[in-house]
């Protein structure tokens, strides 16, 4: 398989994808059969009484719907070195760590060759469609990739973030080469131990090869925005390095210094050109095309909790299109973006029916009431569902916690739009607000800052039950100082933008207290990111937690100790 990958044939990949999606129901049955045949000897499946049966009816009758919590002890035993078939027939040799931003600590998830294969299948599929619309020639990519360290678990298994396990796999490089998406930075920069030094050198490499850069990408939109915000602070130092051909003394990692010394040669003309370009920009609008004249698009996950960064990203991008990357999680992949021309807000993902077995729990208004999960081809357009996922790496009927909406069908497989994480629920009383509700409220209130030419750098939320009654707290970091008057208006606007009936009625009778907007110091969300990096998370996998619960005390402390001012709503 690897040998074939050298020659990439986009038309052939699209042809295979079309064939796969034409008879999704049959492919799903075969995929489940294969998963159960390969893993039938696993202790977990044997204990459920499947007795070698591989049909969907027996599977649904015997195997319960689970969350990570129910599988934790099994995964821990694998990590501790038990070699018996526990969740899979073949031994698991690698463990992935989730970002940890949802629960406050990273989760262990099994990772194997089959997951790596499906990752490459997703990459090749979406690239084939993307390259049809936005062809890239043999250029380079400025990729803000960071690989955190892999470590050994108690039982000697390799463990790292999901992105690290992918980046360090030999298949990854071959695929990237085949799909002409090679990173312009040397491995020493990607795998460097200090993210700040790696970021600086990513820019240096990008600027050295500025004419060759055809696309800019990172795992998440947040990472791209964070990179260009950093560029605003270090661009003059980068110019000096390029002018003199000497690497800044801030770069102290020997392996990075050695690798960069091979690339960096004195180039006063280039330094002068970059200085000129940056100096002539108005508030950094159009920074990307100014620096990289041949960039075709910017690429990364831009949906869900990444949507709030799109305005800033568009500001940097100018006219360059933003393309949302594929849909997956630390547990595995779900769908590919085969309609790259759609703006990120409208991005949909076509489920690949052979990378796992998928079920969908209809979302009803009554939380707690559940209906029978539907199969991949049984879902209805316009309806919302929570995804259940069965993969080749030991997860069976696993609740991903994501809510999706079916927007249409590609042949017989659904096109999904990511709606929100199901488990973020701001609730004090009978109110229930999701991540999407929070995002819409913040977007609405942030419009009031436009007059002062300010924007919300980042935000999160908390429910404060120490007061009577409890109330919502929204934390904002701003790009500059806003007037008291505007921030009072913002707190009122936030309060009124939560339109959930339970919230509005509870606010009216004071069963929920006035919403509180707390403005935090510049750099607070950087401290939160540093906190997660110290726990072993990777920058490329980092997502700002949109809700900070009581179990996430360390993050709550960072926020509370950096509050500059707070504003209570007077809207009700």
From TrEMBL:
Claim: Ligase is one of the keywords in the record: yes
Its protein name is GH3-like hormone conjugating enzyme
Give the organism, scientific name: Trema orientale
Q: Which UniProt keywords apply?
A: Ligase
What protein family does this chain belong to? Belongs to the IAA-amido conjugating enzyme family.
Write down any Gene Ontology CC term: cytoplasm
Keyword Ligase part of the UniProt annotation: yes
Residues annotated as transmembrane: none
GH3 C-terminal domain location is 436-548
Q: Which PANTHER family match?
A: GH3 DOMAIN-CONTAINING PROTEIN, JASMONOYL--L-AMINO ACID SYNTHETASE JAR1
GH3 middle domain location is 349-421
Molecular-function annotations in GO: acid-amino acid ligase activity
